């Protein structure tokens, strides 16, 4: 087993979906069966990625495999050095696991879509787009540098745009695609500036080289503030892509895309790319940056959980729950619980993909009905969908024996420890509140959809379990939501292979005084080893240990509480939800209308920009072009005036001279009679006048 | 290739074609079109030949010896003209890393524009004769190394452009043509004045040891050639050099077009026929930035260093102002015209940084904007030919009706947005790397990143208004692209994607020269000791 094999295979896995995309997009019209080719390509990519994962974890468990080449090379005057822009691949355990997760979900979604999208006008094109997306996503996963991250980041944005707006004839879909791309771009600008800061200082985009420089005490522009700023700015990319507040507004709208797309892109993989990015830059985050990240993550998870409570569109509930869970992961990274964040990313990918595909199955069966108030009783009609949906719901609610329990509990323990160590108690409090809300709204969803009496009998009568190409992915994903794949001990992940062997919290490279106190290593030896596993302070280890059982107990209590409330409301109907909503009208309306954040943006940023641009256009036309036309007009006026002057003044003078001499001549010609007598009289009179005038005598 | 006058050939071939066309009978429309196509195709071949013999490590810029494909001989030689003295003007051509990308661009865009001219039906003979003359003028500007020759070509391209807009244009063609002509002519006057000033400040030494004034651009860059009392001599301590710099800059800025001199552009574009818009945006605008890099920068390095921040500021204004105004447009073509204003701002921003990456990015952006905007204008032409309207709100849902066309539009739009994988991304990224890397322009670069966002906003909004939503039944008979339109769009799309994936193909051409330019302008070279001049 050689390293180059793993690299080559990873690159092959990366380019296979691109090959699929180009083939299908160009030949798909002629050969409509080519979608099968795309599915086959993804299946082989999945098999290869399983092999890579196995090989990486077995033979190179602690070693990062890196390969790179120089893409652009140029001198860098006036600084007198050389810029080498390298592209490269870094396969560490995180990348290998992500490679598998992305390929698995992508392959399952491909298979699922064969049935779900059947009969669509652009059936083959859909599969081509899926290939493009998978390519872009894999690029993010295996890159070893920020530039390539940004490149694939944008490409993911493109494929997301294409797939959200796949049913482009619907205005709402086209709107949603546009919104997703533009909102993401806001985050990307921050990320881009962050990358520029790092590149300007280190002349490289490569993660490891940047980290080594920082570890060596070489800070951006020589200041810790810039280091913090760089971290927060790059994190802005994640705010966009992982739909964190205040850029979360695009994700719920993205549900306009086909449901399998929502499962793949807007639940399991692309939106997790933001979390993945933060794991990649985790080691260069200062305590200040991490606190910002933790607060944004916590606030996002709470905000979207409160919105999810009242939504009636099955996909919207799931979308807000996705935002909430992503907030969880971000929060987890912010408090330093790196491993649990990544663990939750993986477990969430499976159960959330399962939930979305399950909702797709329901929507498919209900003839594109998405309103859960019109569903109910589907349990009997669609047993496989129901059971898989239920398992995933248990997982997301954090019920023992599921994967979600393990990862969520870890995050909560992390926040609890963080609260104890730093005094930021609001973060664990938010975490537990969100856990309760999550359990409530997820069970509300399950009860309203699958339990009780059907509300729309016509649609219910026609509902039926979906065919195996759709249910098989559900089964696979729900099975992966069971604890056994991650750890043999259903209540503690610590002993499991995932946490014990595969993923470790890396050592931070930022100066000690800019870290959380508890993230400073306890020993000097630990410090010497860059990229090694972090060795936390004794205090942290003890606190984590302390937090473990209380966190577990409390998370169980709050989850149970949430489920109980859901049962009271919707199964036993002890409390009428509508009446309660009436009583809490303000809160209910706020939640239902997503706290009016979209409206706020509409009224401020969007119409502000549009109005400003109209004003500028007016300014451009009237003032600037007006000045141009005005000067042309002025020139014409001046030339007219000078023309007039020329005609009347200059030429007039000439003409007047001529006229005057003519007039004088005319007047005097009367005197020229030609008679000598007259002349003699003139002469005599003249002589007399002269004599009188000069008086010579 | 020594001795083969490839630059003269590539420049004057269209003139030969024009003369040939004049002999064609009036009703022979097809041969005229095919002849033009062949001529421009040969130009492309010549450009490829040039590139394949290009020496990537020769710098050029200020050093005559490292220019390539030089052609130089005495062109005008008048002796003893009273106070003027001897007038000796050279026919002097050559290329380096600054001009080679532009030569390639001109050849490619001219060829594509000829294909796009196929739909011209009004006085075909006159059209193509003028078109070829325009082609020659553009090419000449990029290869001339003698200021006098440069100026002749600069003016040469003005005249056909005036007629091409004024005769074959849209409803307000006269207004647009005259506006274009007078505005550009105004710029030319500034350039002319400075040129004459430079002429009387620069001498070159003849074989017999006597000194004569010269229009040689490279000689003008070398302070050693300055006369003691020359009006624009670096040795003459007056402020006129600054004024001359501003005059030249203004002359070129009108062409770019730089805010606030840009308002001729939307009018010219809206009225010009599609192929002329393609030429205008694809090549003509680059003459402005090329002129600044070729003339302002090396001839006035000390003033350039002084004004870096201001150039960057105008770059930033172009980027953001252009994008915001584009956002408010309701006419497809006008929107693309304003997007040009925005995208040319990146060129200014990049070159203001006076760093290798920034100027590399700027020149690369010139090339990329040429190909991408050419594609955008062709796209506007395609829909205008069919629907005879360009109102953004008149369409809707065309994606269902014209899927292949929509595919090309998507490629072009995302290239304009700066999507990675396409050439525009690399050049914009390099511009930012360069301008962010220099402390002086850092803040301006940061503000300019807003252009990335606004670009996405107006482009995607346009995409949506024309192509998405329910199909407007009025357009249910529109046909998708035909073969000729494929032939125009496919090469451009391929170039855009190729250079996005493998940018070194273009960057390597310019790298050596740009380094040399940066060194020269930033004063790293003791310019008084340049040899050879």
Task: Tell me what the structure shows.
The complex is a heterodimer of chains A (697) and B (533). Chain A is mostly helical and 697 residues long. Helix content of chain A is 72%, strand content 3%. Chain A has helices spanning 3-27, 35-59, 93-116, 123-142, 146-164, 171-202, 207-215, 224-241, 250-253, 259-268, 270-281, 287-308, 314-334, 338-365, 378-381, 383-397, 403-422, 426-450, 457-462, 468-479, 497-502, 524-528, 538-571, 577-583, 585-592, 597-669, 676-694, and strands spanning 65-76, 81-91. Chain A has a two-stranded antiparallel ribbon. In chain A, a hairpin with a 4-residue loop joins strand 1 and strand 2 (81-91). In chain A, helix 1 (3-27) packs antiparallel against helix 4 (123-142) and helix 16 (383-397) packs parallel to helix 20 (468-479). Chain A is elongated. With 533 residues, chain B is mainly alpha-helical. Chain B has a domain at 303-533. Helices cover 67% and strands 6% of the residues of chain B. Chain B contains 21 helices and 4 strands. In chain B, the strands form 2 sheets. A two-stranded antiparallel sheet of chain B has the order 1-2. Chain B has a two-stranded antiparallel sheet with strand order 3-4. The longest helix of chain B has 32 residues, at 356-387. The interface between A and B is large, with 54 and 61 residues.
Give the terminus-to-terminus CA distance of chain B.
24 Å
* Secondary structure category of chain B: mainly alpha
Overall SS class of chain A: mainly alpha
Q: Largest interface, and how many residues on either side?
A: A-B, 54 and 61 residues
Order of helices and strands of chain A: HHEEHHHHHHHHHHHHHHHHHHHHHHHHH
**What value does the average pLDDT of chain B take?**
89
Distance between the termini of chain A: 146 Å
Taking pLDDT < 50 over at least 5 consecutive residues as the criterion, the unreliable ranges of chain A are none
Number of E strands of chain A: 2
Order of helices and strands of chain B: HHEEHHHHHEEHHHHHHHHHHHHHH
Tell me the radius of gyration of chain B.
Answer: 23 Å
Q: What strand line-up does the widest sheet of chain A have?
A: 1-2
Could you tell me the number of beta strands of chain B? Answer: 4
